[in-house]
Design a protein that fits this description.
This protein is mostly helical. It has 5 helices and 2 strands; from the N terminus they run H-E-H-H-H-E-H. The protein has helices at about 1-15, 25-30, 35-70, 75-130, 155-160; strands at about 20-25, 135-140. Helix 2 (about 25-30) runs parallel beside helix 5. The protein is rod-shaped. About 10% of the residues are buried. The model has no long low-confidence stretch (mean pLDDT about 85).
Length: about 170
């Protein structure tokens, strides 16, 4: 029984010894990718489109309010109620559009960033396989200690064909 425990411990230690863990700074790599400027421009254009649509809705709301104020004295009670309900719906739509705008922009940013993530992921897989890494962790504030010798960020940048200055 003791021999089995020792053998099991030896197997666990030897398999743990074969584990090679590295880190990567994804944000740094993304900031160095030339395609990022295109993505940022696409997101900016999308945001401008949403802003333009919001301006159109706001202008229509303002016109409806002005028309209501102008025509209010000559409207019947039923007509007032109908116009008020219509204006209220327009206002609610504008508020929903504003709230959803942030979410829509985030989703669109993710959609535009996906090819960059895919490209980075492919390069990371090549580097990890070539250098024998079994695990790669994100380099962020959650890592308590890390030896820069096991950081694959520069290797992935090289795999992507991106040159960096030594001080970076």
């Amino acid at each position: 029984m003791k021999l089995m425990k020792i053998a099991f411990l030896f197997i666990c230690v030897s398999s743990f010894a074969q584990t090679k863990v590295g880190t990567i700074d994804v944000d740094f790599i993304l900031s160095k990718m030339p395609e990022l400027a295109t993505v940022q421009k696409q997101v900016e254009d999308y945001t401008k489109g949403l802003d333009a649509e919001l301006q159109v809705q706001s202008a229509a709301f303002t016109q409806a309010m002005e028309a209501y104020k102008r025509d209010e004295p000559s409207l019947t009670i039923l007509q007032r109620k109908t116009k008020q309900d219509s204006i209220l719906v327009m206002e609610q739509d504008i508020n929903k559009f504003r709230q959803n705008g942030v979410t829509l922009i985030g989703l669109k940013r993710e959609e535009y960033m996906q090819p960059l993530y895919d490209k980075l992921g492919t390069a990371l897989e090549k580097v990890a396989e070539a250098e024998g890494y079994t695990q790669i962790l994100l380099r962020n504030n959650d890592v308590v200690y890390l030896d820069n010798n096991y950081d694959v960020t520069v290797a992935v940048l090289k795999e992507l064909g991106i040159e960096i200055k030594q001080e970076e």
